């Protein structure tokens, strides 16, 4: 359970937030950055995390950016998922994230909170993996910009005291053909069995996955097999499954065998639809 004496801070600039983190760390107060706070509350009630202080980044204007900048579109880390859905600038992101929890929860869940979360699904990161996004991070050495593939490996590889400010994608990705499918074993809400997102660029399909392994991922080895049009679809899918990272999940949401069964059918459905799109 979360302690009743947690200290709360709301800095108005990136530098203030980072400085406050290291002040609190020096005082052994176990600081955590906070935007929507849904995961902090959930994990705190389960006694998985025990923050002594939280640093709310929602007052930092850069984390609320939702705008065009030169050849990119910017998504601030503190934007609620429902805001992104309503604006629908990036339909692939909208479709991938709109079934994360229910609408009331998504009013609080932020894009940064989801993609940086401890709960392994992190579906909202899939479109950014597919689109070779750029990530802006704040830390002790100031603000840094990274290609997402350089800083995301199963999860974001942040150094101590760093936090996500923004995610940027090139505008060309906003209107590409796409499909995203979320499969559940039962019910219409709650945790999914698997989520698969796909875009088509230069006549090649890209795929990213959540819920299949204990981390979201995009694999070029998997994509190479799925794009091998010299082979029948079933054979392409079989070869792609041989390239999956391990382990494939085997939990209360579904067994490994059931997940792979659902994945085969989902990939076949997606390939058929996407190869017809221009």
UniProtKB/TrEMBL annotation:
Keywords tagged on the record: FAD, Flavoprotein, Oxidoreductase
Domain FAD-binding PCMH-type, first and last residues per copy: 1-176
Keyword check for Isomerase: no
GO MF term (any one): FAD binding
ATP-binding as UniProt keyword: no
InterPro entries reported for this sequence: CO_DH_flav_C, CO_DH_flav_C_dom_sf, Diverse_Substr_Oxidored, FAD-bd_PCMH, FAD-bd_PCMH-like_sf, FAD-bd_PCMH_sub1, FAD-bd_PCMH_sub2, Mopterin_DH_FAD-bd
Stored Gene3D superfamilies: 3.30.465.10, CO dehydrogenase flavoprotein, C-terminal domain (3.30.390.50), Uridine Diphospho-n-acetylenolpyruvylglucosamine Reductase, domain 2 (3.30.43.10)
Name recorded for this polypeptide: CO/xanthine dehydrogenase FAD-binding subunit
Record organism: Neobacillus niacini
């Amino acid at each position: 359970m979360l302690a009743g004496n947690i200290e709360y801070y709301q800095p108005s600039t990136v530098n203030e937030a980072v400085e406050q983190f290291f002040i609190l760390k020096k005082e052994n107060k176990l600081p955590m950055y906070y935007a929507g706070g849904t995961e902090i509350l959930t994990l705190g009630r389960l006694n998985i995390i025990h923050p002594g202080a939280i640093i709310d980044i929602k007052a930092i204007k850069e984390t609320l950016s939702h705008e065009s900048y030169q050849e990119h579109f910017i998504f601030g880390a503190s934007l609620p998922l429902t805001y992104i859905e309503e604006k629908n600038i990036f339909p692939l992101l909208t479709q991938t994230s709109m079934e994360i929890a229910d609408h009331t929860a998504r009013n609080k869940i932020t894009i940064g909170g989801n993609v940086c979360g401890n709960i392994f699904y992190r579906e909202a990161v899939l479109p950014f993996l597919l689109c070779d996004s750029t990530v802006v991070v704040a830390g002790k050495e100031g603000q840094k910009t990274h290609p997402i593939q350089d800083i995301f490996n199963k999860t974001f590889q942040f150094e101590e005291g760093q936090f996500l400010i923004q995610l940027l994608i090139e505008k060309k990705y906003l209107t590409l053909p796409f499909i995203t499918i979320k499969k559940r074993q039962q019910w219409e809400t709650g945790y999914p069995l698997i989520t698969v997102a796909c875009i088509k660029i230069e006549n090649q399909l890209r795929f990213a996955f959540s819920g299949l392994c204990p981390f979201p991922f995009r694999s070029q080895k998997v994509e190479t097999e799925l794009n091998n049009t010299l082979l029948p679809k079933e054979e392409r899918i079989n070869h792609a499954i041989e390239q999956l990272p391990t382990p494939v999940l085997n939990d209360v949401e579904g067994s490994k065998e059931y997940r792979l069964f659902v994945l085969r059918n989902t990939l076949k459905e997606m390939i058929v639809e996407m190869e017809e799109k221009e």
